[in-house]
Amino acid sequence: MVNLAKVIGLLDGGVIPEFQGTTLTELAIAYKEVCEVDSKNSDLFLLGLEQYYDKNKLTNEIKSFDEFFELSLIFDRDKNSINRFFDAALGLRTIGNLAKFDQIAHEKQTGIKEEQRVRGSFEYAHAQTHYSLLIDIFNYLRPPGKKSLVDIGSGFGRVGFFLNLCFPELKYLGLELVEERVDCANKIAEKNNFYNCKFMTQDLSDKEYVLPKADFYYFYDPLSEENLKKVILDLELQHKHNASHFMIIALSGYDDLLLEYLKSQPWLQVIRSIEDTYFKQAGLILQTVSI
Ligand SMILES: C[S@@+](CC[C@H](N)C(=O)[O-])C[C@H]1O[C@@H](n2cnc3c(N)ncnc32)[C@H](O)[C@@H]1O
Question: Which end of the chain is more exposed for a tag (fewer CB within 10 A), N or C?
Answer without folding.
Answer: C
